[in-house]
Design brief:
Helices cover 33% and strands 16% of the residues. The protein is an alpha+beta fold. Helix 1 (46-54) crosses helix 3.
């Protein structure tokens, strides 16, 4: 989606937002075009097409005198919210206090080195497909996600290291190297996390909690899955080596 980028240093009209090395702290204004970007071509994935069908909002729902909606923050969440609102036909103004859009997905240079601000791991890439589908675009025309192995490497003060990997066998070998007794604990923790993910994300991530009763109905599941514990407290029940925690 083309946007208007305006900073304290320059203004570029109707050009895609591209990462650039930040200079001085600047205020960025992203003005999403007033004309909705919809129906430009068929969606290439069946599941994305189903998502588009579910989110076709009639224009008549939008009052003629609707004010422009302001979205503050141009990270993944702000960009996604602005695009969804545009797909519904609302005029949107997206504000960002930094010198570039992207939030944790931005990059910066310092002392001759280039750094990624994040994200560390993208856990739900299908949500990117859904977002592009809503405005009739194919994400493959804009970017390619490449697998990284390992995801990242942790260096400890004692000289040991740990490679966080998507390969379970390699991950178990890393755990065994630090503490063999924690291999079984990790397997048990992984099974519990799968159940937490199934309830906390798959079933509830897109559900509104507007009333106390909405929250009350999931309390039994949260108690059973130790939802009252901190992440560190839960992990500590299964992993004993402080480096793995």
């Amino acid at each position: 989606m083309n946007v208007r980028v305006q900073t304290s240093n320059k203004s570029t009209a109707d050009s895609p937002v591209k990462p650039s090395a930040p200079a001085e702290p600047a205020r960025t204004v992203l003005a999403v075009p007033d004309k909705p970007v919809r129906g430009q071509k068929e969606v290439l994935r069946d599941e994305s097409a189903a998502v588009v069908a579910q989110h076709r909002y009639p224009r008549e729902r939008i009052p003629v005198n609707s004010d422009r909606i302001v979205v503050i923050g141009a990270g993944f969440g702000g960009l996604a919210a602005a695009i969804r609102l545009r797909a519904m036909g609302y005029p949107v103004l997206l504000l960002e206090s930094g010198s570039q859009a992207g939030g944790r997905a931005r990059w910066f240079e310092r002392d001759g080195f280039r750094f990624d601000a994040g994200p560390t791991v993208i856990t739900a890439p299908y949500l990117f497909d859904e977002l592009f589908a809503l405005v009739g675009r194919d994400p493959r025309d804009y970017y390619q996600l490449l697998a990284v192995e390992p995801y990242y490497r942790v260096l400890f003060s004692d000289g040991c290291s740990f490679d966080y990997s998507g390969d379970e066998e390699r991950l178990l070998q890393q755990i065994e190297k630090l503490n063999p007794k924690d291999v079984d604990g990790y397997r048990k923790l992984a099974k519990l996390v799968e159940r937490i993910f199934d309830i906390g994300y798959t079933r509830l991530a897109d559900q509104p909690f507007e009333r106390l009763s909405d929250m009350a109905r999931i309390v039994p599941d949260m108690i059973r899955l130790s939802g009252y514990r901190s992440v560190y407290g839960l992990v500590s029940r299964y992993l004993k080596d402080p480096r793995l925690r």
